[in-house]
């Protein structure tokens, strides 16, 4: 593993974006960028935390309702801010920017070694291609991700929300209870055998496909393991800046 620790002191407040109560800024947070090497990539072991984001942007867009914490994933990030964040981290390591902003919007430099977000295929590989067999065992599922599970059934409105889809509301939840209904601290769950943590469920994760040289965003991951499989987790979903629940995981080329 490659371990980088950088400590900066940042003060400020988030302005703009959706109107909801946001988590506090965590000034002076240590940026923990722990990476693993796989298939020519360096992949961040952890999702970008609220402390990481505070460190670099002096803001924290995460909704209070999702769960506040310096070592919990950042959420509620709009796409421009996500691309700028990746470029900011690239600059800190003297790497060229992968995302480029022009008059017609964002493009990418596919030859850049700078930080970026994974494609769906890359996300699948570091999440499942090298996973351990126990990951698919319902008895162990809460070990691997912050899935929606039996601990959520007592929350207000959950029963009525899901019962209209299925007569047995419990079939939509993992048959275990990790006691965490909101965001968990990064690294709380058993990593897959690629050593990447929390990808199957904590925050959803931003994936970016490149179409005709332009970055096209989706989200993947998920908050629940349903009907005995990961189908709800592995289906890409449209990215919506107005209702963004996606977390971030940085990757880059290893050469």
Order of helices and strands: EEEHHEEHHHEEHEEE
User: By helix and strand content, what is the structural category?
Assistant: alpha+beta
Q: Largest sheet, if any? A: 4 strands, antiparallel
Placed side by side, the strands forming the largest sheet appear as 1-2-3-10
> Number of DSSP strands?
10
Written overview of the protein:
The protein is 18% helix and 19% strand. With 255 residues, the chain is of the alpha+beta class. It has a domain at 2-133 and 186-198 and 241-253. The chain has a four-stranded antiparallel beta sheet with strand order 1-2-3-10. A four-stranded mixed beta sheet has the order 8-7-6-9, with no helix packed on it. It has a two-stranded antiparallel ribbon with strand order 4-5. The chain is globular, with a radius of gyration of 18 Å. The relative contact order is 0.19.
Distinctive features:
single chain; alpha+beta; four-stranded antiparallel sheet; four-stranded mixed sheet
Short synopsis of the structure:
By secondary structure, the chain is of the alpha+beta class. 18% of the residues lie in helices and 19% in strands. It has a domain at 2-133 and 186-198 and 241-253.
């Amino acid at each position: 593993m490659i371990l980088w620790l950088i400590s900066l002191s940042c003060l400020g407040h988030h302005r703009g974006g959706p109107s909801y109560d946001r988590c506090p800024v965590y000034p002076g947070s240590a940026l923990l960028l722990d990476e693993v090497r796989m298939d020519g990539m360096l992949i961040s072991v952890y999702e970008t935390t609220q402390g990481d984001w505070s460190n670099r942007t002096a803001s924290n867009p995460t909704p209070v309702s999702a769960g506040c914490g310096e070592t919990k994933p950042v959420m509620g990030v709009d796409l421009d801010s996500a691309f700028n964040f990746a470029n900011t981290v690239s600059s800190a390591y003297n790497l060229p920017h992968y995302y480029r902003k022009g008059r017609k919007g964002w493009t990418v430099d596919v030859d850049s070694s700078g930080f970026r977000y994974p494609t769906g295929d890359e996300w699948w590989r570091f999440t499942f291609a090298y996973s351990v067999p126990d990951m698919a065992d319902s008895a162990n599922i809460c070990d691997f991700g912050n899935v929606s599970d039996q601990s959520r059934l007592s929350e207000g409105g959950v029963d009525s929300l899901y019962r209209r889809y299925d007569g047995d509301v419990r079939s939509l939840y993992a048959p275990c209870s990790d006691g965490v209904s909101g965001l968990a601290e990064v690294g709380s769950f058993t990593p897959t055998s690629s050593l990447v943590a929390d990808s199957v469920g904590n925050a959803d994760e931003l994936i970016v496909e490149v179409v005709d040289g332009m970055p096209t965003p989706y989200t993947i991951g998920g908050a629940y393991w349903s009907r005995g499989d990961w189908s709800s987790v592995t289906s890409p979903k449209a990215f919506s800046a107005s209702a963004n629940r996606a977390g971030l995981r940085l990757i880059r080329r290893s050469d």
